[in-house]
Amino acid sequence: MSESVKQQAHYEAIHDDYEQHYYDASSMAFRNRFVYDLMFEGQDLNDKVVADLACGSGHNSLAVLERFPRAQVVGFDVSTRACEAYRRTVGREAVQVDLTAGADVGREADVAMVFGGLHHCVSDLDGTFRTIGRLLRPGGLLMMWEPNRECFLEGVRRLWYRLDRYFEATTEHALSEPEIRRRASPRFEGLDCRYGGGPAYFLVCNSLVLRVPVGLKQGLAPSLFALEAAYDRLPGRFWFPYFIARWRRKD
Questions:
Q1: 140: exposed, middle or buried (C-beta count within 10 Å: 0-12, 13-18, 19+)?
Q2: Which residue, 18, 57, 104, 244, is the most exposed by fewest CB within 10 angstroms?
Q3: Taking all residues of the chain, what is their mean pLDDT, rounded to a whole number?
């Protein structure tokens, strides 16, 4: 079985649980405050073609449309089920594609965004960057939110990936932003990178992993968000389980 087929089968097996935990009101509040505010800072995506890579059901595209109602969002995912859900949820086009193939997907975009999707493409990151480079117009923006391999908890993460059925350990690994930026340097230049992730990231955003009941999250979120904001002020990258990076496609 190919790596992309494994990823497709894995996503479709956990789809319902994933949707319930990662896109409830509390999780979306986390994304709005700690992810989207940073990722979209200083950007105007109105009238831009925005490619939502590894789009899932499209909740990140909906967040873009709330902020930039004239954005032209398009979903891309390896999963048939995800593309069907994207069309229903967002009401926009979704293209089934294996990002690792390095192929021309027949579309052009001004912006590509990926939320936790690149670390599912580790079977061929070079091919993935070729695909994205062909998709983006020269000067186009690539924005990503991915797990940080340089975090002090990386050993725990690797063990959890092997033991937990919600992960496909052979096809997904955390990433080092400086390393993948070097690998992608023929096509992309880095603009900025920020690190984050504290108690709210684990207990609210990743409630599925820690088996926190969805019903408890709304009560926990306000105090955990305050702790999160304080934790994110720590310096460096060692303390943080994720990074938010923005790159530009070279001309």
A1: buried
A2: 104
A3: 90
